[in-house]
Design brief:
mainly alpha, 12 helices
């Protein structure tokens, strides 16, 4: 009984902290402080998903929601000029308008939550009943790659479209620093191989335990972000067709396998049970590679094959 009371107290404190962090993130006038609070919110949200027995979602939240999204926000913030930072401070009218809209959103979400039936079985029973036909033991992977593979296919397409939208904005200016941070350089040399191994492990273990393509791709992207932070640049010979091939290989592999079985008198994305395991692993491997490269390219913020118009000045510590 005492252990249950402690867990309830922990959940209550965790829930209150999440609400407080969310409010502080949205109401902060300091953009850097808002980004840091957002990252802290993502990490605690991952812990909340663990408490809800959703380790797959917790992995995605920690790597993508907090880590990579936080890195993207910090990268965008670093590219803002002082004038842009001043102009980005929202007016009182806009803040009040957002507050009113969020209030109505909260009322709507509350109504939906309290309208749910007290006993909702969902589809977990049906998934468990047909888990053997999916050729994987992890129900989350079975749902994402087999039962609801259309959703995952469209998510890959959305990620690719997001990258194309970022690239269409033009080439961002780049400045390569002459100073090499020895600590960051050492961490990069140690952690990048570890991240690649962890990514491969998450890909393999996703068939029967928490993991899968998106988690593996996010960890792989973290390795790329770390390389970019250490002033690593992709060689020009890899920035053209080779890079674009890797970006689309996940989506192309997904569609090709799906249409491949159509010619065998099956429905699109319907895998034969005896072959499903191998094809799911093949799809997830290609998707992990594409997701990792897309997320890392989003952090870079520009098409590496396009030369920047601005000169790559050497940072000597003197601000122009």
């Amino acid at each position: 009984m005492e252990e249950i009371d402690l867990l309830l107290l922990f959940d209550a404190v965790l829930g209150f902290t999440l609400v407080w962090l969310a409010w502080q993130t949205l109401s902060s006038l300091d953009l850097f402080r808002a980004v840091v609070l957002f990252i802290a919110f993502g990490l605690l949200m991952a812990l909340a998903w663990v408490r809800l027995d959703a380790p797959d979602v917790a992995l995605a939240e920690a790597t993508i929601g907090a880590g990579l999204t936080g890195a993207l926000l910090l990268s965008a913030l670093a590219q803002l000029s002082a004038r842009q930072k001043h102009e980005s401070e929202t007016s009182l009218f806009l803040r009040l308008t957002l507050g009113v809209l969020m209030f109505f959103l909260l009322i709507g979400l509350g109504y939906i939550v309290f309208s749910l039936p007290p006993q909702a079985l969902g589809l977990s029973v049906e998934v468990a009943k047909n888990i053997e036909l999916s050729a994987v033991a992890n129900p989350v992977t079975a749902v994402l790659i087999n039962y609801r593979s259309y959703d995952t296919l469209l998510e890959l397409g959305v990620l690719l479209l997001a990258l194309l939208a970022v690239w269409s904005l033009g080439s961002a200016s780049t400045r390569k620093s002459a100073f090499v941070n020895p600590v960051l350089d050492l961490l990069t040399r140690i952690l990048v191989p570890v991240f690649i191994l962890v990514s491969g492990y998450l890909l393999w273990v996703g068939a029967f335990a928490p993991g899968g393509a998106f988690q593996a791709g996010a960890v792989l992207a973290a390795a790329g972000v770390l390389l970019f932070l250490n002033d690593w640049h992709l060689e020009s010979k890899y920035t053209g067709f080779a890079l674009r091939s890797v970006l689309v290989i996940g989506l192309v592999m997904f569609i090709a396998i799906g249409f491949g079985f159509v010619f065998l008198d099956r429905v699109f994305l319907e895998y034969p049970p005896e072959l499903a395991g191998g094809f799911i692993l093949l799809i997830e491997a290609a998707a992990s590679l594409s997701i990792g490269i897309i997320l890392a390219a989003l952090f870079l913020g520009r098409d590496p094959s396009v030369k920047s118009d601005s000169c790559s000045d050497i940072d000597t510590g003197v601000h122009k």
